């Protein structure tokens, strides 16, 4: 449908033909990111607006709808100060207003660490009640629940009962805790309290300084990508195909492999040391010299054919860098630092007669001030949708249990990562709630803190999951949980399909105190 008289340039937008999941034709709006000519024919690299970047592709002219072509708008350039982007020439009036604003802010803003008395409504303590029954109206629930506890009372099931515990003092009010997941039902915010911004999709530490000069990388080793510096090169996939063992992978995103390798039709990787090579002959020659049949590092878990290896980013730097390069092909929200020293890598493998084949991995900081127990997490595409993603997540929380900490993944999560974590959190929390037994007809009780301690899931993630599942209701001055039969049946069906689980008895892991180890 392309009109040869009209030249399509980079930045143009127009509908492009593609197949959807049902293999039906659709014409989503797309942006032209690049144009190239091969064998006398033009090809266009397109990004489908409102679609994930992994769907970006090269298309032929006949897939373009030229009737709805939109040319890029010319933006008026703002003069810059000192040649730096994002700044404007100063003027006496602007400087005066800026100084005045700063003076007013200093005079009115309270200093950090001090409190200013403001009229507030006293926060209600959390009280959660759950009933396993067909959506019983809230009005039928008893109001005699202890105010700082979660009260669970099954109606449709006969269970043993126990005496309610005494209220705990360390429970935080639910309405004052913000969540990092998109909840179906949000609690009303209290007057005088500011709600935190949703942190899925943002990261304050990765933002630039206000003067337009990029800030230095975080010393904590965060892998959060700073999207403000995306250029046309990093927005485009640069590797066509990767051969890794018996699998051929189609990368989803840009990865900074050496420039001379990006023009190859296939990039060959050794599946044991992850070294990249330019041809099959080079790979075969390398395999005669490569002695590895498993990832370097310590094997800390083995059950059946599944093993986990712990790899120090400082001791095994080359392997860690090669792993990051491979992972970047499938992770868009993380950036790549060649300094892998601050990280530990946990590689999951599947064993057969030829060796231990990589299935996926996650990395974590040796020291995290934000309680992150995962920096990057990836299941390679050939192993996706087989339960390995949840197994990686479960293993990361098993490590947190051994360390005696609660943990949370580093934000932002990718779309697939967020789905996996929500599913894991939901199943883990529902598993605990449904295993509680009643005693003497009383309601079994549990607090949010206790759920967090049992699972090592951070308290904010517990609450965001309860909100996402739409379990939380407000009744007679307290928060209660209501589990319908649909939730229970759906959970039981999901758990029947979940065959892969971590066995804590097979984990041989001793946590290290990295703060006392100097430079590691």
Report on the architecture of this protein.
With 520 residues, the protein is of the alpha+beta class. The chain contains 8 helices and 22 strands. A hairpin with a 2-residue loop joins strand 9 and strand 10. It is globular, with a radius of gyration of 27 Å. Mean pLDDT is 76; it is low at 104-220.
Helices and strands in order:
Layout: E1 13-15, E2 18-19, E3 25-26, E4 29-38, E5 41-48, E6 57-59, H1 92-108, E7 128-130, E8 150-152, E9 242-244, E10 247-249, E11 267-269, E12 276-277, H2 280-289, E13 298-303, E14 306-312, H3 317-328, E15 343-352, E16 355-365, E17 372-374, E18 376-379, H4 388-403, E19 408-409, H5 415-435, E20 445-446, H6 448-455, H7 459-468, E21 472-475, E22 478-481, H8 485-497
Parallel strand pairs: 7-8, 9-11, 17-19
Antiparallel strand pairs: 1-4, 2-3, 4-5, 5-6, 8-20, 9-10, 11-12, 13-14, 14-15, 15-16, 16-18, 21-22
Helix pairs in contact: 4-5, 5-7, 5-8
Order of helices and strands: EEEEEEHEEEEEEHEEHEEEEHEHEHHEEH
Question: How far is the N terminus from the C terminus?
Answer: 60 Å
Number of strands: 22
- State the secondary-structure class: alpha+beta
pLDDT < 50 stretches: 104-220
Task: Give the averaged pLDDT, no decimals.
Answer: 76
Count of DSSP-assigned helices: 8
Shape: globular
Strand content: 15-25%
In angstroms, what is the radius of gyration?
A: 27 Å
Strand order of the largest sheet: 13-14-15-16-18
Major pleated sheet: 5 strands, antiparallel
Helix proportion of residues, in percent?
10-25%
């Amino acid at each position: 449908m392309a009109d040869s008289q009209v030249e399509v340039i980079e930045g143009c937008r127009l509908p492009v033909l593609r197949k959807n999941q049902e293999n039906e034709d659709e014409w989503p709006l797309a942006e032209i990111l690049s144009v190239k000519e091969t064998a006398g024919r033009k090809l266009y690299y397109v990004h489908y607006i409102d679609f994930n970047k992994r769907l970006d592709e090269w298309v032929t002219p006949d897939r373009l709808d030229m009737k709805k072509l939109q040319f890029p708008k010319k933006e008026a350039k703002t003069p810059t100060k000192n040649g730096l982007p994002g700044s404007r020439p100063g003027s006496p009036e602007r400087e005066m207003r800026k100084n005045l604003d700063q003076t007013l802010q200093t005079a009115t803003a309270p200093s950090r660490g001090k409190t200013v008395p403001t009229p507030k409504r006293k926060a209600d303590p959390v009280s959660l009640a759950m009933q396993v029954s067909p959506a019983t109206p809230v009005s039928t629930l008893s109001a005699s629940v202890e105010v700082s506890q979660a009260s669970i009372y099954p109606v449709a099931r006969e269970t043993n009962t126990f005496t309610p515990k005494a209220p705990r003092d360390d429970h935080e009010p639910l309405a004052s805790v913000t969540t990092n997941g998109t909840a179906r039902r949000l609690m009303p915010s209290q007057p005088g309290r500011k709600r935190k911004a949703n942190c899925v999709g943002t990261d304050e530490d990765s933002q630039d300084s206000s003067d337009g000069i990029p800030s230095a990388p975080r010393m904590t080793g965060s892998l959060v990508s700073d999207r403000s510096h995306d250029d046309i090169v990093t927005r485009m996939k640069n590797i066509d195909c990767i051969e890794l063992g018996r699998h051929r992978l189609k990368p989803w995103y840009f990865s900074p492999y050496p420039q001379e390798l990006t023009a190859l039709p296939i990039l060959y990787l050794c599946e044991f040391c992850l070294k990249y090579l330019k041809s099959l002959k080079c790979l075969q020659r390398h395999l005669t010299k490569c002695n590895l049949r498993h990832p370097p590092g310590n094997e800390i878990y083995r059950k059946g054919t599944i093993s986990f290896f712990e790899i120090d980013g400082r001791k095994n730097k080359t392997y860690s860098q090669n792993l990051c390069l491979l992972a970047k092909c499938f992770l868009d929200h993380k950036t790549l630092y060649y300094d892998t020293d601050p990280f530990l890598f946990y590689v999951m493998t599947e064993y057969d007669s030829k060796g231990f084949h990589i299935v996926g991995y996650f990395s974590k900081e040796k020291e995290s001030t934000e309680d992150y127990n995962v920096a990057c997490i990836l299941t390679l595409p050939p192993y996706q949708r087989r339960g390995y993603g949840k197994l990686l997540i479960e293993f990361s929380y098993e490590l947190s249990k051994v360390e005696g900490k609660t943990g949370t993944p580093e934000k932002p999560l990718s779309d697939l990562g967020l789905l996996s974590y929500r599913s894991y959190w939901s199943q883990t929390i529902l598993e605990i709630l449904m295993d509680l037994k009643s005693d003497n007809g009383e309601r079994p009780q549990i607090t949010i803190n206790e759920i967090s301690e049992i699972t090592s899931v951070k308290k904010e993630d517990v609450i965001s999951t309860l909100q996402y599942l739409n379990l939380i209701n407000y009744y007679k001055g307290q928060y209660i949980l209501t589990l319908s039969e649909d939730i229970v049946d759906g959970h039981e069906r999901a758990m029947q399909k979940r065959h892969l689980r971590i066995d804590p008895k097979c984990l041989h892991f001793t946590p290290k105190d990295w703060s006392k180890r100097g430079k590691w």
